[in-house]
Amino acid sequence: MKEYLSGLAKACTAFCLAVLTGLTLSSCGGQQSNLVIREENEKRVVNLFSPMEKTDPDAENVARSASDLTVRMAEKKLNVTMFYRTYTAESYQEKTYDEVVLDRVRSNMDDLYLLNPDTALILGAEGKLADLSGLSCVKNLREIVLTANTVEGKLVAIPQEVVAYGLFVNADMFRQYDLELPETPEEFLECCRVFQENGIETPVGANRWWLETFVFAQAYADLYNGGNAEGEIAALNSGAARYSDYMRPGFEFLQTLIEEGYIDAEKTLVSEAIEAEGPDFLAGKTPIVMAYWGAANTETSYGKTDFEMQVIGFPSSRGQMPVVSMTGFGVGAEAEHAEDALRVLDIMTSDEALQGYSQVNQVISPSKNIRVDCVPALRPLNARIEEGVYVLGSNAGMKVEQWGNTCLIVRELLGGATVDECMASFDALQDASLQN
Q1: Strand partners, 370
Q2: Residue 328 pLDDT exceeds 60
Q3: Are 17 and 97 in contact (CB under 8 A)?
Q4: E strands of 355-417, at which residues?
Q5: Could you tell me the maximum CA-CA distance found in the chain, to the nearest angstrom?
Q6: CA distances from 411 to 124, 211, 269, 407 (A)
Q7: What distance in Å separates the CA atoms of residue 229 and residue 126, rounded to the nearest whole number?
Q8: Which of 134-138, 207-211, 249-253 comes out lowest in average pLDDT?
Q9: Does the pTM of the predicted model rise above 0.90?
């Protein structure tokens, strides 16, 4: 079981990274570019490893991703140029991105890396990543960014965006049945009951990737919003507290959704994100789905509906609760061009660069000084985040990787496992982490 969870967790976190890079880097493609500082005829380079490619920097009228624009800013300010080294599954004989990036960092093959939280945790604990806390951009970062990317007291990664997950709801259908948008798990279940009694057989459209968002909202509402996140995480990392105690209410809630038929467990277990539940939601047959922030901006997802859509937080004891995740850029501690890479990263994550990045992509900035001008549907979710109310779905400071492992254990539940069996899986993961 331990090997099964470990292997599939890599697939789940790889999917999370694919979503994030897909949101921000979709316009990338083409050839690699070079970033060079010339001093007395000496060429100095910075190498970036990521799942993306870069357009020709000299081409005219070529659309660039928001990330490219921040690199261009660094090029101009530092008079440098960057080599892009990119990942494809075919090139690495189907190894996951996480597996490849671990090897490359440990072998000092590059300078700057885009990292999932689980790899940042592993590499940070091994001392393979530079401490970024001295960069000038750090003073502008949201507290949640620092919490999510600090390993053993060192800031090991900095993102260019914070990805928020929420409930996408058909507000017209809620009004049709005189329902208020739910705040708590109990209110959510009551809404599902009313929908079902009025002929909506399966009120919640779900997929095999994102049901863990319900769990995180209920498990960590108090941890991240109760004023003692650092202490509670330390207790989990030491074994003084158990992940299973945090996770149980969320899994019991999902079990109720399954038993009452509010989600179709069999269909959910094999469904891909948005592809499965999206058509019924857009057709007004399913009132509730879950997705990430960018899906509300994209017409191919939920950016254009024939009804009023609102995006709210997941039900929790503290009300509607956004769930956020992030990938981040890290610098190899022993990288050949570490100093130049740090300078580049400092500019890429400066307020000046992030302002443009956020405007282009319409995403939540890691900087507390930058506010996103979001579409009306996202305003309820954004309001909670701006209030400082949210939970982390990924946290490099936790010794047990969260997003991928929880995703997999939710699948055990969908496949017929009991809540107690699912909690035993969390206990096994935690016990394994304590032995390291």
Answers
A1: none
A2: yes
A3: yes
A4: 391-392
A5: 77
A6: 29, 9, 6, 6
A7: 24
A8: 207-211
A9: no
- What integer pLDDT is reported at residue 12 of this predicted model? 54
Residues 6+ apart with CB under 8 A from 383: none
- 221 pLDDT more than 50: yes
User: How far apart, in Å, are the Cα atoms of 374 and each of 67, 172, 282, 364?
Assistant: 19, 21, 21, 9
- The pLDDT assigned to 22 comes to 45
> Which helix (H) or strand (E) covers residue 365, if one does?
none
Mean pLDDT of 27-51: 54
DSSP 399: S
pLDDT for residue 236: 97
Cα–Cα dist 152/127, whole Å: 10
63 contacts: CB under 8 Å, gap ≥ 6: 27, 55
- C-alpha distances in Å from residue 117, one per residue of 145, 149, 160, 197: 11, 7, 14, 42
Beta carbons within 10 angstroms of residue 106's beta carbon? 14
Indicate the SS3 state at residue 26: coil
Which residues are registered as beta bridge partners of 332? 129
Residue 285: how many other CB atoms lie within 10 Å: 14
Q: At what angle are helices 117-125 and 403-414 packed, to 10 degrees?
A: 130
The pLDDT tens digits of the residues spanning 348-403 come to 999 999 999 888 888 889 999 998 788 999 999 999 998 989 999 999 889 999 99
Q: Kindly report, residue by residue over 268-326, the tens digit of the pLDDT.
A: 999 888 888 999 999 999 999 999 998 998 887 898 999 999 999 999 999 999 999 98
Q: Which of 404, 385, 426, 400 is nearest to 165 (CA)?
A: 385
DSSP3 helix / strand / coil % (the chain, rounded to 5): 45, 15, 40
Tell me the DSSP string of 28-80: --S-----EEEETTEEEEEEEEES-----TT-SS----HHHHHHHHHHHHHT-
Burial 79-104 (b: 16+ CB within 10 A, else e): ebbbbbbebeeeeeeeebbbebbbeb
Run of H or E including 155: strand 154-155
User: Over the stretch 144-171, which tens digit does the pLDDT of each residue have?
Assistant: 899 889 998 999 999 999 989 999 999 9
DSSP state letter for 189: H
Rounded Cα–Cα distance for residues 261 and 197 (Å): 12
Provide the token pair at 101: 């990036």
C-beta of residue 18 within 8 angstroms of C-beta of residue 50 = no
